[in-house]
Amino acid sequence: MATGTVPPGRPRDEKVGAALKSAALRLVRERGYQNVPVAAILKEAGVARQSLYNRWNTKADLVMEAFFEDAGTRVAPPAAGQGRSGRDELERFLNEVFDHLAAEDGTLRSLIAAAQSDPEFCRMFRERFVLPREALAVAFLAEAQRLGELPAGRDPEIMAAFLHGAFWYRLLSGQPLGPELARAIAGGIFGP
Amino acid sequence: MATGTVPPGRPRDEKVGAALKSAALRLVRERGYQNVPVAAILKEAGVARQSLYNRWNTKADLVMEAFFEDAGTRVAPPAAGQGRSGRDELERFLNEVFDHLAAEDGTLRSLIAAAQSDPEFCRMFRERFVLPREALAVAFLAEAQRLGELPAGRDPEIMAAFLHGAFWYRLLSGQPLGPELARAIAGGIFGP
DNA sequence: GCATTTAGTAGACCATAGTCTATTTACCAG
DNA sequence: CTGGTAAATAGACTATGGTCTACTAAATGC
Predict the structure, then answer these.
(1) Which of B118, B192, B123, B126 is nearest to B164 (CA)?
(2) How far apart are CA A65 and CA A43, in angstroms?
(3) For residue range B37-53, what is the model confidence (pLDDT) as tens digits?
(4) CA–CA gap between residue A116 and residue A132 (Å, rounded)
(5) Are residues A119 and B164, on separate chains, in Cβ contact within 8 Å?
(6) What is the CATH number of domain B11-58?
(7) Residue-wise pLDDT tens digits, B106-133
(8) In the CATH scheme, what is the code of domain A12-57?
(9) Nearest protein residue to D28's C1' (by CA)?
(10) Contact at 8 Å (CB) between A155 and A141?
(11) In chain B, what's the furthest Cα-to-Cα distance?
(12) Which CATH class is domain A73-190?
């Protein structure tokens, strides 16, 4: 199997990549994506420039990996039929997501921006961030439909796009994400 | 009135700004936002660097103004109660918008990206692009509601956010905008 | 030990957005 | 005509993302 094969040459030092990710994450959280030059990450990680570009193509690539690796599962996904109504469950979920995004303060916006000028980055962003979250939402909506909380005629896929789109739209056009929006979205999906 | 007062000093040459906007628009359409250095715009316009930064703060500012000034009214806004059903009218409108965006090939994406790192630009983008379009959609949905095509309980504001959000979301996560999406969105808003 | 291969380091280098300085030009008030 | 003010031009300068080159270090196979 592939695990037995060892590539020739000096092996990568795992600590180098780890130091880069951790430095990037810390600095970006402290100062914001735009205010962290690559040089600062390198200095903080104590690593040479080339070591970054051996592993990632751009600063945005590095930050995305650091960000998503860390983000792991900070927010409990919505689950239908757990005592709460689907509507309330969706509202809870959105409020948690909004809190999380507020704490990241612009990191996600920066990454979405970076994705607009780099197709490969955009693809990765979609695979690692967009699609998993969309799948969760679709599953939740389909389950709510099965439980009769949502009219059967609705298309869960497009409802999921409405859901995510509505808050991306607010986020990217510089509007605050707050409880009112969570309530409005939940109401718009499940009916008032 | 204020029109009588003339500011001191040499007056701005209207041709300079016009040349910049027209050069920016043409080059960005030809080559894409990322592939047009500021120097190229300056050379094409036959104008000095400072003349650009006298008028706009960034390249994105200039391109946005050129873009929106030109975009004017390329797409007929949706109008309820004109023979077509609200659903069909919305689908038509979305298809026109998507065609227009396809022709611009990434300009809007670039501008949204630029807005993420510049609050002032973001504000202007919101005022000059987002809000007018949102207002049109809200008016259309409210009218459809008045005509009984849309249940009275729905909130036109959040429906408009769903509508725009859904295609921003697709656009920014690198998915194609096509007739299927227009149909799905129209179906999601008006019911299948 | 020696050759080969790839990782890591150091630092020069390039392209580009945006700032700053010096000089000239166009308009107004007196 | 002169002085003041701001626009236009030319071009140096800075900051930064990303590339390239030269050298050193750590692994493998002989």
Answers:
(1) B126
(2) 19
(3) 999 999 999 999 999 99
(4) 20
(5) no
(6) 1.10.10.60
(7) 788 888 888 877 777 788 888 888 888 8
(8) 1.10.10.60
(9) A8
(10) no
(11) 63
(12) mainly alpha
Closest chain B residue by Cα to residue A32: B117
Amino acid at residue number B22: S
Q: What is the dihedral of CA A161, B172, A136, A63, to 10 degrees?
A: -160
Q: How many CB atoms lie within 10 A of CB A163?
A: 29
**Which residue has the closest alpha carbon to D6 C1'?**
B9
Residue carrying the six token digits 């007062």: B5
> How many angstroms away from the CA of A98 is the closest CA of chain B?
16
Other Cβ atoms less than 10 A from the Cβ of B187: the count is 17
Question: For tokens 């499940």, what's the residue?
Answer: A190
> For residue A121, what are the contacts with CB-CB under 8 A and spacing of at least 6?
A57, A58, A60, A61, A64, A114, A115
Amino acid at A36: V
* Domain segments of chain A as ranges: 12-57, 73-190
pLDDT per 10-residue tile (average), chain A, 192 residues: 71 97 94 92 98 96 90 75 89 92 79 79 84 92 94 93 93 90 96 78
